[in-house]
Write a structure and sequence with these properties.
The complex is a heterodimer of chains A (286) and B (449). Chain A has 286 residues and is an all-alpha fold. Chain A is built from 8 helices and no strands. Helices cover 33% and strands 39% of the residues of chain B. Classes of the chains: A mainly alpha (286), B alpha+beta (449).
C-alpha cells in the first residue's frame, strides 16, 4: 500500500459517501444515515493514512517535507479539512441531512486532484522559498478556513433550496417533500453564520501567518501580490457579511447568498490566482 | 428626546459607509490583480493601447496600491473606524461599567430568561442561599436591599463587549505600522560579487543609494541541487564589517536572513559571473593564493613562477560540471586536466607539488529591508486575532435574583441575559435553575418558568 493508492481509495469512498448522503435526502431514508457517516469516517481514515504515508514517503526519498507543497497536496488537505469540519458539524447539530451539501465538496476536490491533467501528483522536493517552518502553519490555517467556507457555501445552497421550496409549498398541508427532512431554516441560518465566523477567524490567521512568513523570507509582510490581494478581497467579503449581520441584522437568504459569493472568492484566491494570474505563489500551480 | 446627531458624524460612523468602502476596496483590488503592476510605461502601451495606457497613467493604475485614491480609501476606512468607535464606545462602555442593581423590577419580569420559585423560607434565608448560588456564577456579586425586596446581581465577561473594538483598533495599529514603515523604513537591494564588500544598497523604485553605516562582504555564494536538478539551497556567506572590524558572520539562505543595525539582508537572487575563482596552494613554500580568472585567459603566480588558465567549461544551464585547466611552471611540459567545481586537484611537478580548486564566481543578490513599523503590524495582528476570539466566542452574561415577600411565602425571581451565544447561556441558566431546585437550604413550594 502506498499513499497514492490510499488517496485513490479515499476519492471513491467520498464518492460513495456523497451518494449515500444525497440518497438520504432524496429518498428520505433516515435509516441509512449511520451508514453515510461510517463511510465518510472510513474515507477520512484512508485519507489521513494516505497523507501520513505521503509524508513518510517524502522522507524515504530523502526530500522529507510536510505534504503541503503543491496544488495536488493542497487539494487533498482541502478535502480532508472539509470532511473533518463537516463531521464535527454533524456531531454538534446531530443532523445527517446536511451531508449531501458538504461531503460532495470533498469528493470534487479529491477527484480533481486525482484526475485533472494539469495536476502533478509527484512528490517533489521543496524549492528554497518553501523551506520554512511557516509552511505548515500558513497552509493549515488557510485550509481550515477554506474548508469552513466550502461548508458554509453548501449550507447556503441548502438554505436557498429549502427557502424556495417553503415559499412554493406554503399553505399546502400534508405535503412531505425532500426539504421537510432538512433542519429548520433558522438552524441552517445559525450554522451558516457560525461556520463563517469560524472560517473568518482561520482566514485571518492564514493571512497573518502568510504575512509573517513573507516578512521573514523577503522583508515585506505585504506586497499586493495577486494571492495576497485576493485573500484580502475574500476577507472583505466575509467581513462585510459579518458586519451586515451584526449591525443590520442580515440573516436568511442574504447571508446564504453571501456565503456562496464568498466561496467563489475563496475558489479564485485558491485556484484562480495560481492558474490565471502570476505572482509569488506560482509554485502552487504545479 | 433623542439628540439629533451631527450629519457628518452620522455619515462617517455609518455601517453603510463601511460596507461601501469594503466593496470599493475589493473591486479596486481586483483591478490591480488583473492589470499587472509596476511595469514600464511601454508595457502598458503595448498591452492596452495608447488611449487606455494614458487613462491608466492618469489614474495611477500601474502602481494603484500606492495611488492617492487607493490610499484615500484606506484613510476613509480608518476615519469610519475611528468615528464609529467614538460614536458607539461610550454606550458600550456604559454597558460594561453600569450599575445593574438599578435594573427595575418591571424589566426583570420581562427578561427572556427567567424562572421563579416560591419557598417556605424567610427572606434572609432565601437571600443567603441565593447569594451562595449567584456567588459562584461570577466574581462581582452585588446586592441592594429595600423595603420590598432584595436584588442580587452577578455577571461574567462584561469586558468581552470591548472585543469588537479591539479588532477595530487593531486595524488602525496595523495601518500605523505600515505608515511608520513607509516613512522611516527602506526597501532596497544590492548585488555583491563574491569577495567584494559594499556599504551601499539601492532603494527599490528610485535606485537611490542608501548608506548603511557599515559594510557587508559576500565571502562565498553556493547553489546546491537536488538529485533531480531542482535547486535545493541558495546560500551566501556574509560578513559584517563595522569600523574596519569584522563584527558578524552568517550564512544566509532563503527564509533565514541576516539582521544587523536595523537592516535585514535576505537571499533574493544571484548572478553567475564570467569568471572563475582559482585557489592554489604550493606545498613547497606553503603559500596560498586565490585568483580571479576569466576563461581562456592566462593567469600568473609570479612568486611561484606559475602560469595557468581555464580553457573550457562543461555544464548545463547554470550548473558547471567540470573545468579544463592548463598549468605550466618553469620546468616540464605544460599540463592540462579536467576538474569538477570545488574538488581539490593535486599537481605533482619536478619543481614541487601544488593543490588547486576552482569554482565559478557568483554575485549574490540581496534584498535589504529596514522596517521599524513591522512590530506595530505584528502587535496589531495579534490583537486582531485575540479581539476576534473575544468578539465571537465570549459573551457578557448577567444574572439577577430578586427576593420578595409574597402573602405567606418568599418569592425568588431568577433572571438573566447574554449579549451573544444565547444557546450557551441557556445551559448556564438551566444550571442555575438546577442549583435552586436542588438546594438543601431552600424549601420549594411552587415554581414557574
Amino acid at each position: 500500500m502506498n499513499s497514492s493508492q490510499l488517496l485513490g481509495i479515499t476519492t471513491f469512498t467520498y464518492l460513495a459517501a456523497s451518494v449515500i448522503y444525497i440518497a438520504i435526502l432524496v429518498f428520505r431514508a433516515r435509516k441509512i444515515g449511520l451508514l453515510a457517516t461510517l463511510v465518510t469516517l472510513v474515507g477520512l481514515l484512508f485519507q489521513t493514512g494516505g497523507i501520513a504515508m505521503r509524508w513518510v514517503e517524502s522522507y524515504q526519498m530523502g526530500i522529507g517535507h510536510a505534504p503541503l507543497s503543491n496544488m495536488y497536496e493542497s487539494l487533498v488537505v482541502f478535502a480532508w479539512a472539509i470532511v473533518v469540519f463537516y463531521l464535527f458539524l454533524e456531531m454538534k447539530f446531530k443532523n445527517r441531512m446536511l451531508g449531501g451539501f458538504a461531503v460532495p465538496f470533498a469528493f470534487f476536490s479529491m477527484a480533481y486532484a486525482s484526475f485533472a491533467k494539469e495536476i502533478n501528483q509527484q512528490i517533489s522536493p521543496l524549492v528554497p522559498a518553501l523551506q520554512s517552518n511557516w509552511l505548515i502553519a500558513h497552509v493549515v490555517t488557510c485550509f481550515i478556513g477554506y474548508a469552513a467556507f466550502a461548508v458554509a457555501c453548501g449550507m447556503g445552497i441548502l438554505y436557498l433550496f429549502k427557502a424556495g421550496h417553503e415559499a412554493r409549498t406554503s399553505g399546502k398541508v400534508g405535503h412531505e417533500g425532500i426539504f421537510d427532512t432538512l433542519p429548520d431554516l433558522k438552524v441552517v441560518d445559525d450554522i451558516i453564520y457560525k461556520t463563517i465566523v469560524f472560517g473568518f477567524l482561520w482566514l485571518s490567521t492564514g493571512i497573518i501567518t502568510g504575512a509573517i512568513w513573507a516578512n521573514s523570507a523577503w522583508g515585506t509582510y505585504w506586497s499586493w501580490d495577486p494571492k495576497e490581494t485576493w485573500s484580502l478581497i475574500t476577507w472583505f467579503v466575509y467581513a462585510s457579511a459579518l458586519h451586515a449581520r451584526f449591525v443590520r441584522g442580515w440573516a436568511g437568504k442574504r447571508i446564504a447568498w453571501l456565503a456562496i459569493i464568498g466561496f467563489f472568492s475563496v475558489i479564485f484566491t485558491y485556484y484562480g490566482v495560481n492558474f490565471l494570474l502570476s505572482g509569488l505563489h506560482s509554485y502552487g500551480s504545479s | 428626546m433623542k439628540k439629533q446627531k451631527n450629519i457628518l458624524v452620522q455619515f462617517f460612523s455609518s455601517i453603510q459607509l463601511s460596507l461601501f468602502t469594503f466593496f470599493v476596496l475589493a473591486i479596486a483590488s481586483i483591478v490591480g490583480t488583473i492589470i499587472p503592476q509596476k511595469k514600464e510605461a511601454a508595457f502598458y502601451m503595448a498591452e492596452f493601447g495608447p488611449k487606455l495606457a494614458k487613462l491608466f497613467d492618469v489614474l495611477s493604475v500601474p502602481d494603484m496600491y500606492n495611488s492617492w485614491w487607493f490610499l484615500s480609501l484606506l484613510v476613509l476606512l480608518s476615519i469610519n473606524l475611528i468615528v464609529c468607535t467614538f460614536d458607539r464606545l461610550p454606550k458600550v462602555w456604559h454597558m460594561v461599567v453600569m450599575d445593574n442593581l438599578e435594573t427595575t423590577r418591571e424589566r426583570l419580569e420581562r427578561m427572556s430568561h427567567r424562572h421563579s420559585f416560591l419557598v417556605a423560607n424567610d427572606r434572609d434565608e432565601a437571600t443567603s442561599a441565593a447569594a451562595a448560588v449567584l456567588g459562584r456564577f461570577g466574581r462581582e456579586l452585588r446586592r441592594a436591599e429595600s423595603e420590598e425586596g432584595v436584588l442580587l446581581f452577578n455577571q461574567r465577561g462584561a469586558w468581552t463587549r470591548l472585543g469588537v473594538y479591539v479588532v477595530h483598533f487593531s486595524v488602525l495599529v496595523i495601518f500605523v505600522g505600515a505608515i511608520i514603515g513607509s516613512i522611516y523604513g527602506h526597501k532596497g537591494g544590492v548585488t555583491i560579487p563574491e569577495g567584494v564588500s559594499t556599504q551601499r544598497i539601492y532603494e527599490f523604485g528610485t535606485d537611490r543609494p542608501i548608506d548603511l553605516g557599515f559594510q557587508v562582504r559576500c565571502d562565498r555564494f553556493d547553489i546546491a541541487y537536488y538529485d533531480n536538478g531542482m535547486p535545493r539551497e541558495y546560500r551566501s556567506d556574509l560578513t559584517v564589517i563595522k569600523d574596519g572590524k569584522e563584527v558578524l558572520k552568517k550564512s544566509i539562505v532563503v527564509n533565514d536572513p541576516l539582521d544587523y543595525g536595523g537592516y535585514t539582508f535576505y537571499q533574493a537572487n544571484y548572478n553567475p559571473l564570467n569568471e572563475l575563482m582559482v585557489h592554489l596552494e604550493s606545498a613547497k613554500s606553503g603559500a596560498t593564493e586565490t585568483f580571479l580568472v576569466s576563461p581562456r585567459q592566462q593567469a600568473v603566480w609570479q612568486e611561484e613562477g606559475i602560469s595557468f588558465g581555464v580553457i573550457n567549461i562543461e555544464g548545463s544551464g547554470q550548473a558547471d560540471f567540470r573545468y579544463k585547466v592548463w598549468f605550466r611552471d618553469a620546468d616540464g611540459d605544460p599540463l592540462s586536466f579536467w576538474l569538477p567545481p570545488d574538488r581539490v586537484g593535486k599537481i605533482e611537478r619536478p619543481s614541487g607539488n601544488y593543490t588547486i580548486s576552482l569554482k565559478r564566481r557568483f554575485a549574490t543578490g540581496l534584498q535589504v529591508a529596514k522596517d521599524p513599523g513591522v512590530w506595530w503590524v505584528y502587535i496589531g495582528c495579534g490583537a486582531m486575532l485575540l479581539g476576534l476570539l473575544v468578539a465571537f466566542f465570549l459573551s457578557h452574561r448577567r444574572v439577577w435574583v430578586y427576593i420578595s415577600r409574597e402573602e405567606n411565602a418568599t418569592r425568588i425571581l431568577l433572571c438573566g441575559s447574554a449579549n451573544k451565544n444565547r444557546i450557551g447561556f441557556e445551559k448556564d441558566f438551566a444550571a442555575l435553575v438546577d442549583q435552586f431546585q436542588e438546594n438543601d437550604r431552600l424549601t420549594l413550594t411552587k415554581e414557574t418558568a
